[in-house]
């Protein structure tokens, strides 16, 4: 496991991608890495030219992408969402984002157009996953962030509205993605959210570092040791590669 970067537990083999990302973001303001896009430090992307954001009001996500990629397209599926996002981005001074409106069935782009695509969980159906793969260049990355349907606090907090996206890894494989990696995301008010590989050793290492000797901390470490780390975090991140 690599050294922690920007509050994240890293993943092996990221040195080349990190070097390119650092070069691409030199001199840019860092605040969006702490909001919605610090997962980019884990993405194994060899080219940082074009990105596409799909889904709902994705202004925070788009702002982060705009700081890392030369050109960002935002494809909204309703005009009101598109207008709100565009107003926020214009006010923040982002000039490299191009908005458009379309249906979530056929994406109006040629094959292999983008290096990275981000997708809202509510649209992660089989047809759109196949479209995302089509418009990604070979080696490109698809990001899907979603509320974790297995999180142990969901029922306790009465949060029954989360989208139950079960079997997403299987559906990504069926859509033709060659490699899918899953991460847990833990928000923090004091630092960028922590992104932890959904792997028994990685989760256990994180829980040992992040929790004190309380009963709650011991319980979390016990679940991590049993390989049940997926129930500990409210959000999941899927990175799928063409």
Strands, helices and their partners?
Layout lengths: L14 H10 L25 E6 L3 H10 L2 E6 L2 H13 L5 E5 L12 E7 L5 H10 E12 L5 H4 L11 H7 L4 E8 L7 E4 L2 H11 L4 H11 L9 E7 L1
Parallel strand pairs: 1-2, 1-4, 2-3, 4-5
Antiparallel strand pairs: 5-8, 6-7, 6-8
Describe this structure in words.
The protein is of the alpha/beta class and 242 residues long. It has a single domain (15-199, 235-241), classed as Rossmann fold (3-Layer(aba) Sandwich), CATH 3.40.50.150. It has eight helices and eight strands. The chain has helices at 15-24, 59-68, 79-91, 126-135, 153-156, 168-174, 200-210, 215-225, and strands at residues 50-55, 71-76, 97-101, 114-120, 136-147, 179-186, 194-197, 235-241. The chain has an eight-stranded mixed β-sheet. Helix 7 (200-210) runs antiparallel to helix 8. It is globular. The two termini are 24 Å apart. The model is unreliable at 1-34 and 160-164 (pLDDT under 50).
Number of domains: 1
- The CATH architecture can be named as 3-Layer(aba) Sandwich
Share of helical residues: 25-40%
Q: What is the residue-averaged pLDDT?
A: 76
Query: Which regions are unreliable across 5 or more consecutive residues at pLDDT < 50?
Result: 1-34, 160-164
CATH superfamily: Vaccinia Virus protein VP39
Radius of gyration from the alpha-carbon trace, in angstroms: 18 Å
CATH topology: Rossmann fold
Strand portion, in percent?
15-25%
Shape: globular
Give the biggest sheet.
8 strands, mixed
Q: What series of H and E elements makes up the topology?
A: HEHEHEEHEHHEEHHE
Structural class: alpha/beta
